Amino acid sequence: MTYQDHIATTRQLIQGKNGAWDGIDAESVARMRLQNRFQTGLDIARYTAAIMRRDMAAYDADPANYTQSLGCWHGFIGQQKMIAIKKHFGSTERKYLYLSGWMIAALRSEFGPLPDQSMHEKTSVPALIEELYTFLRQADARELGMLFREIDAARAAGNQIEEQRLLHAVENYQTHVVPIIADIDAGFGNAEATYLLARKMIEAGACALQIENQVSDEKQCGHQDGKVTVPHEDFLAKVRACRYAFLELGVEDGIIVTRTDSLGAGLTKQIAISHTPGDLGDQYNAFLDCEEITPENGVSGDVIINRDGKLMRPKRLPSNLYQFRPGTGEDRCVLDCITSLQHGADLLWIETEKPHIEQIAGMVDRIRAVVPNAKLVYNNSPSFNWTLNFRQQVFDAWAAEGRDLSAYDRARLMSVDYDGTDLADEADERIRTFQADSAKRAGIFHHLITLPTYHTAALSTDNLAKEYFGEAGMLGYVKGVQRQEIRQGIACVKHQNMSGSDIGDDHKEYFAGEAALKAGGAHNTMNQFAA
């Protein structure tokens, strides 16, 4: 309903109560309804799933329509990100949030900081989704509340043109609520555990779940060693569990992102079940590193598979894990991706060891030969040394062209000594255009940075601590923080307003009229920031 429709229907409702509700103002109710547009997390999940589906179709039509997100570890961080996006770009279109399991483990676990190994409480994942959307909904309430106050001021001044402009802004208001791609790790257990957690995440508002093909109890960060994958059928059971959760809750267009860690995973815990030659289990086992077994070299406890009529012994490590043949990572990634898309996945995630467009594109080309509209979510990871990687890529490209590289030492290209050189400038330009270039060439629909706000929080706190506890003293805060907030128009410089004080004052006035004791009077120090 429109703003005026809400007012009219509420007024009719009040009038039907024979005077008992005459203390309720219909327009105030309409305002509160618009400030609380989403009643449940499922409302959010359905709304944001539709956004992602439209964005995926737009990308299929033109890869310039790629999407982006930043990982956020607290509701306030996500809120400030979306407020900043609206301020700088005027729209939240194609801008999402990413919920990182790494950051939950490191920052939100009751155990304290943990490595990214699925040791944190699984309940902390839906809790953070709910927290993020609580803060985004509060951003809506705050911004709409300011518009409502401006409407009242325009009416008081008799400025009907300004009032109509503001009413139009209310009717066409764009919410801060955007899709969250949420990390469910490897499912935190078996398929039933995956389903139970997926359901809680969707109920909290998640429209997109990202699940990886590692063993749950051996899960590692995608950019660390020791990763262990599972056979496809085990993984697909968890993919189906996520889909069942979406369908049970009525989010029929929910998105499943399947992540393969096979590029950097050389181990498996299980040998896949195979019923016929060439089936999925047989294809998985074909990558195992095996040696032919004979009566002479067989030992107690050997596990034996039949490969092309020969009895083969997969190489088993002291950890009781089996290893894959070296150099098979890309082939396993391609098989993982095709298999996932053929069994219900919507988007792919290939965890790579470096941000190299042609490496990614080489795999995507093979995937698209089977599934033409395959699309990736890609981790623009802080685990990559972007400066060194791209300077070395430029160095290698120039070497292939036969250019003179005598002024550069490939191993030292991270050095500040090379800043401002032609090679460094070209590398920076490649970094700048990486997302657009890889969206076009390598099928990347969504670019995210998993841990950016973890690093920005550390960097800004380091800078403040150095100044405030040093000779700058209070000037370290005023010059480096507050003055910049004021001059750059950062919303939370008025931190009382940001925390909901003005919303509370509005409600007090709705509830108690002239008797309301409000905080936002003449003596509120936030008035110092009015200019």
TrEMBL record:
InterPro entries: ICL/PEPM, Isocitrate_lyase, Pyrv/PenolPyrv_kinase-like_dom, Pyrv_kinase-like_dom_sf. SUPFAM superfamilies: Phosphoenolpyruvate/pyruvate domain. One of its GO terms (molecular function) is isocitrate lyase activity. It holds the Pfam family ICL. It comes from the Bacteria. It catalyses: D-threo-isocitrate = glyoxylate + succinate. This is Isocitrate lyase. The keyword Cytoplasm does not apply. The keyword Lyase applies.
